[in-house]
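ok so I'm stuck.
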Amino acid sequence: MLRCSGGCNSPQCCPDLGDSALGHLKREEPGRYRDIFSALHREGIIQESLARTMERLAGFRNVLVHGYADLTPQQTWRELRRALPALEEFAENISRQ
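replied:
not stuck anymore, here's the structure
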């Protein structure tokens, strides 16, 4: 069974689930969170376009979590709304593992 550490809010949970999937395949953990999605693509779990979108979202998550930029609630909401289709696609792909 794939596992997510933490509260399973989607931008945080996706790399955790991807890492768990790679572990089940006995693949080495990538060095950076965002690289998990490229590894999932190489394993045929997600399409390249989704991997690129998820890498961008991982970068956005880092901005939010580490405070690299001052974002308004409106900017954050706009980005998360834009990300919803990719999060849903990722959930569908990873649930098959």
